[in-house]
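Course assignment 3, question 2. Fill in each field.
Student: A.L.
Task: Predict the tertiary structure for the chain below.
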Amino acid sequence: MSESDIAGAVERLMSHVDYYLHCELDGEYDHDRPDSARARLEAALREELVRAQAVGLVSAATQKASV
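Answer field:
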């Protein structure tokens, strides 16, 4: 993954972390429960890991093809 890919992944994940922390820590926030915010964060983490794995597989295949 390139630096810009990593930066994008971190930015996407941080928005989910911010949302989770907001739900978990803000006692007056009742739009969503912390458990569903946690599930949303976990799904985002899984999505980013799958995306990173796919990028790695494509990069490896491209390197093999050019050798």
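Instructor remarks: Residues 13 and 44 are 7 Å apart (CA to CA). The first helix runs from residue 3 to 25.
Grade: pending
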